[in-house]
Amino acid sequence: MAVQTMVIDCHGHYTTAPKELLAYREAQIEGLKNASHIPSKGKLNISDDQIRESLENAQLKFQRERGTDVTIFSPRAAGMAHHIGDATTSLHWSQHCNDLIHRVCSLYPGNFVGVCQLPQSPGVPPANSIGELERCVNELDFIGCNLNPDPSGGHWTAPPLTDRYWYPFYEKMVELDVPAMVHVSSSCNPNFHATGAHYLNADTTAFMQFLTADLFKDFPTIRFVIPHGGGAVPFHWGRYRGLAQDMKRPLLPDLIRNNIFFDTCVYHLPGIELLLKVVPFDNILFGSEMVGAVRGIDPETGHYYDDTKRYIDALPLSDEQRRQLFEGNARKVYPRIAARLAAN
Amino acid sequence: MAVQTMVIDCHGHYTTAPKELLAYREAQIEGLKNASHIPSKGKLNISDDQIRESLENAQLKFQRERGTDVTIFSPRAAGMAHHIGDATTSLHWSQHCNDLIHRVCSLYPGNFVGVCQLPQSPGVPPANSIGELERCVNELDFIGCNLNPDPSGGHWTAPPLTDRYWYPFYEKMVELDVPAMVHVSSSCNPNFHATGAHYLNADTTAFMQFLTADLFKDFPTIRFVIPHGGGAVPFHWGRYRGLAQDMKRPLLPDLIRNNIFFDTCVYHLPGIELLLKVVPFDNILFGSEMVGAVRGIDPETGHYYDDTKRYIDALPLSDEQRRQLFEGNARKVYPRIAARLAAN
Q1: What percentage of residues in chain A have a pLDDT greater than 90?
Q2: Nearest C-alpha of chain B: how many angstroms from A138?
Q3: I want to staple B151 with a disulfide (CB 3.0 to 4.6 A). Which of A99, B120, B270, B332 is the partner?
Q4: What CA–CA distance (Å, rounded) separates A136 from A96?
């Protein structure tokens, strides 16, 4: 690796937050059971030392060990649980989670840059999330958001991402020049295991929605990151090329060029090899999702499954390709990261 | 390829059926709109010549051109549409579709062996499909069935495949010694494109359901084919190995050994390479899904996307591996095929 390449991990969640965060959420959910309860935002009492402690032996340790410089960091995805409560529930919860990410980024400005959770709620128009997006970008220096295509948590009751239902929110994304990672949360449908099915299904579903509509004619500069290596898409790249061809849609590299990006959260070398073989290099961002869905060490390699940098390092890439994958593409997709890195 | 290997394609649907079949279905659906309409099974008028014509320039031509000997053949998957009407609607429709497959297999006993559609319906227990399974296996010489894990067509309202809800049907599968291909149908949820999202999501979902439960302790000999190369699973094999490990579940090769099989319906060489690299050879069946989801010719190769045999032929496999993939594994998963092939 050329020494001057910065390694930006585009996909990290605060999965190790102090237990007070979970206690807040549990109390909030408990309050929902009482019909006469008047919801209030309430307080979260977490000290800076608690935050430091929650990161030092987890994300920061792994950054050091794995050679990652900075993580684009957002609240725990499974914790968003937009299907619980209503829009007020989600707003209070999102604000606390986002404020906590802001504190992380302020304590470790060289290690973390923020991406926000949105106060989505089933049946509530996405426009309702514009205020929190603006607050996070304009006041907390966040550089993107996680957009849940299924706030119902596995019942898929919202319109597809290409529906005009989402357009007011997209207009704000474009105006602020921030991308969205398409990321569902936990599933309340017993058919879908969250990290083993729901997440990957959502990635696959979103890609096919984008393939079948002209969203990017309406929003030529909008950018979506489809995480977990794009779900099933790279493995079925031939199927998608063929479907696009049968439907007289654009060639996949043209379809995704400026608008769709996959991360590298694929936890074995053959998967990463495939991803890098079929998806254009311009459309792949380094990501690990650490500390996330898979916590263990792979007995076949002796290394953490989610140490995705090792798989990439094992491939014969050019310096230019590595620069794109580890830094250049992330800077392109998240342009606001430049000011954050410069400020540090 | 060793000349004595028979090439069995485990995944073909009668997508080219004479238009009278569709006309029957349209009339059936039209009848549902009239509350006073008394459903009757009705007649399907299709001649043997029409059946021959529907196959000669499609499945049979491709078998000859591609060197496939026999196709395990079932009604069009998207056509099952279990979400339409009720159990009676599905029963009449399934019986006609299955009878038509039986006629195909009788006209071309060397080319096709039957697998049945089931009369599933949302909210109706799977036990209700036992009668049609028995009829197809015992009277029509079928060797398996397509089981829809989501009869609601994209709303996922049924219990997971590992729930006891499905057990009475599984008992009959085991008794008859026939496997099920886990195969959804069309989607009435606008989020899910059928062949580009719903099918692959169902494959991924089913695998994760199997991974998280002890179904195969209760049914040690039951066999499921997960089509479309297993959805997202092989691409994320590391993720699944890691999830199984974190959850203290069996190693994947042990989990799937006698019970879960993937087909090769993956429409590009890098995908097939990955599949054969990570999934044990014992658990892969040759399949093409032709004439199916993708009809076109890949401009990058000059060959049909769904000519999956070409991808396999391009790989340096041993004769023994080819025999397993093209014939041996299918004979193991569908033991009743032996009598059909011998009868021919």
Answers
A1: 95
A2: 32
A3: B120
A4: 11
